[in-house]
Amino acid sequence: MSKVFVVDTKKQPLNPVHPGRARLLLTSGKAAVFRRFPFTIILKTVIEQPTVAPLRVKIDPGSRVTGLAIINDASGEVVFAAELQHRGQVIKKRLDDRRAVRHSRRNRKTRYRKPRFDNRRTPKGWLPPSLASRIANVLTWVNKFRRFCPITAISMELVKFDLQKMEHPEMAGIEYQQGILQGYEVREYLLEKWCRACTYCNVTGVPLQVEHINPRANGGTNRVSNLCLACDSCNKAKGKQDIRVFLAGKPDVLKKILAQAKAPLKEAAAMNGTRWALYEQLKATGLPIECGSGGLTKFNRTARELPKTHWLDAACVGKSTPVVLQAKGVISLLITANGHGSRQMCGTDKYGFPKRHRQRQKVSCGYQTGDIVRAVVTKGTKTGTYLGRVLIRATGSFDIATKQGRVQGISHRFCTPLHHNDGYSYQKGEAAFLPAMMNFKKLA
To answer: Which pLDDT band holds residue 172 (cuts at 50, 70, 90)?
Structure first.
């Protein structure tokens, strides 16, 4: 499993330790819990001139999920692994809702300023909030890791292989688009778009072929919106048939495929818009940065016979990846970005009409909505112990969201804070299935 971060009484980062060692330090009174997520303990003594092993944080940026891994380059051990889920789509939806509310207020001719556009200036390097949040999330966690463990270098996946440009640098225009580059990158894109499964029968773990939704014989094109993945049996069964004829008996599958085929390239556009901005932000930390490509990441993971997960992709980023990667038994931390609430003072329904007024007060009795607490109720109808996130009220009677459900009417006097709201929620991931014996001779 992932190791536990350790800091001394001066909050200087030390070498991470095994969870069993951290448990002994806590039970013997030599350390105390400093952070719950990521789990960090603080020693009650000062370590003079500690000997620490340099660690490297590796990042596999994604539009929806970013893989994070902390690696010991000398031993090849995966010290910590996490998968960070972004909230770019949520931000986009909230901005659209706010725009609709303001537009409706103007149409109702209520007291509100007219829309002004000439006074807007876009600063250099500006990114939409939905993209800027992705960069901010990654930077937040890189800075956290630097506070809790001795990070000395950064590796990140920056670009993919451009084989066409490498072989024919003078080629441009349509010739460039229809060369080896298309066959390589389109296949990678289709694997992500169709979830690495057959579009028609949803089978996984078999060789997949690029299939034309509208056959070329019927006027179909090679545009990526007309391509999908199919197993050999489905590809042969479909042949030159129209997809509506082939899936006449499966209307739900047909509707899903046609809708997904028209989906825009939002994920690829988001990555293209943020990768260099993230690189510049990480460069400002002062740590040396190693940049790798998607092709190298896939090669490292395939050569080490590792399964496809976001955090294992992060562990395989760059040429610094150890020949033997000790990742067996590592359980990743699943992090979801939730934000810090809303500044909207007037709550609205789905049609944009106001329905309630929000309170300005965010803290009540020392607690904030989203804090993780343990409530030990000793009397009354709700006697018991509850662990979860708290929803505060000005009256001091809180609600606690637990795994079993929501418990209402818990007094703040019974609550003990465990983790303050930091804009993220956490879950325990599953250990990746790793082969018992891995052949590394071809990497030597």
So the answer is: low
